[in-house]
Amino acid sequence: MSHSHEPLATLSNINLQFGSTQVLQQVTVEFHRGCITTLIGPNGAGKTTLVRVLLGLQQPTSGVVWQQPGLRIGYMPQKLQIDKTFPLTVKRFLETSQCRDKSKMRSALSDVGAQNLWKQSIHDLSGGEMQRVMLARALLRDPELLVLDEPVQGVDINGQLELYSLIERIRDQRGCGVVMISHDLHLVMAATDHVVCINQHVCCSGHPEHVTNDPAFMELFGPRGAEQLAIYNHQHNHRHNVHGDIVTSHNCEHH
User: Fold this and answer.
1) Helix (H, G, I), strand (E, B) or coil at 158
2) What pLDDT, in 10s, does the model give residues 67-123?
3) What are the b/e assignments for 50-61, b being 16+ CB within 10 Å?
4) Quick one: 215 and 171 in the same domain?
5) Together in a domain, 181 and 195
6) Is 10 exposed, middle or buried (0-12, 13-18, 19+ CB in 10 A)?
7) d(Cα 121, Cα 200) in Å, to the nearest integer?
8) Which of 90, 122, 142 is the last residue of a domain?
9) Using CA atoms, how far apart are residues 104 and 117, in angstroms rounded to an integer?
10) Cα radius of gyration (the chain)
11) 247 and 188 in one domain?
């Protein structure tokens, strides 16, 4: 698969402060077509905030957010709180995306393996089914960049593997870029091309194999970090001598 050298979107030297709290510090990341970029890091590291900056939902204190003109972004938020008393079928939920084209909605459900859920109530879906329906909703925009915040949350391990391979398949079929937030290490590493490890700043970034050997990654996630699932203690006073050196991976070209 060929990749254009120009990124779909770039965040350059993003700083964000809430009062005296520095949430993001000098963060620079590129997102490319055909590339799955995963943002990892402990809770409170600024991953969701960074995505909000990318989406234009949050203004940075300083830094530049650039997107290709007219870039279509599909967004799958982390959690949706839908009132249990509010009757909502999958069909009506998909219509909240402003799409009224039934065949397109059915096709999106089919793409995520959820075609049989059309008439189901949102409230009766399993965790995995809900994630698929939310992914289908994000696809209705024909996104060139698909942004997924913790897309496997609330899903058992087999369901997680299925969702990751589904995301890869969507990337292959549509040629879109994908940005994923995760704090699962072990599964996401297999399903990603480029990893950016964030803890307010970019600790390290590159191809998964390079990142898991990086001293900054070791410091953040411990020596067994690559094998662990989000179970780690985090020292907030650590320092890094590695400033997110970009490593070219097989699937992505970062310049």
Assistant:
1) helix
2) 999 999 999 988 777 888 888 999 999 998 888 899 999 999 999 999 999 999 999
3) bbbbbbeebebe
4) yes
5) yes
6) middle
7) 39
8) 142
9) 15
10) 18
11) yes
The region that residue 19 occupies, defined by phi over 0 for left and psi between -120 and 50 for alpha, beta otherwise, is left
Indicate whether 62 and 93 sit together in one domain. Answer: no
Distance CA 182, CA 70 (A): 27
Residue 134 structure tokens: 């939310």
* pLDDT the model gives residue 223: 61
Asked if 118 and 42 sit in the same domain, the reply is no
Q: Which of 4-8, 26-30, 44-48 has the lowest mean pLDDT?
A: 4-8
> Around Cβ 6, how many Cβ atoms within 10 Å?
12
Q: Which two tokens stand for residue 72?
A: 């279509």
User: Whole-structure pTM over 0.85, yes or no?
Assistant: no
Q: Check the CA dihedral 147-159-189-200 and report its sign.
A: positive
Give the position of tokens 């830094």.
63
Residues 3-30 have a mean pLDDT of 90
Q: 200's torsion region: left (phi>0), alpha (psi -120 to 50) or beta?
A: left
Same domain, 22 and 88: no
Regarding whether 129 and 52 lie in a shared domain, the answer is no
Taking a C-beta distance cutoff of 8 angstroms, is the pair 29, 205 a contact?
Answer: yes
The count of domains in the chain is: 2
For 92, the domain range is 80-142
Structure tokens at 162: 């299925």
- Per DSSP, helices labelled H in 26-156 are 47-54, 90-95, 102-111, 127-139
Domain end marker among 124, 142, 160: 142
106 token code pair: 């059915």
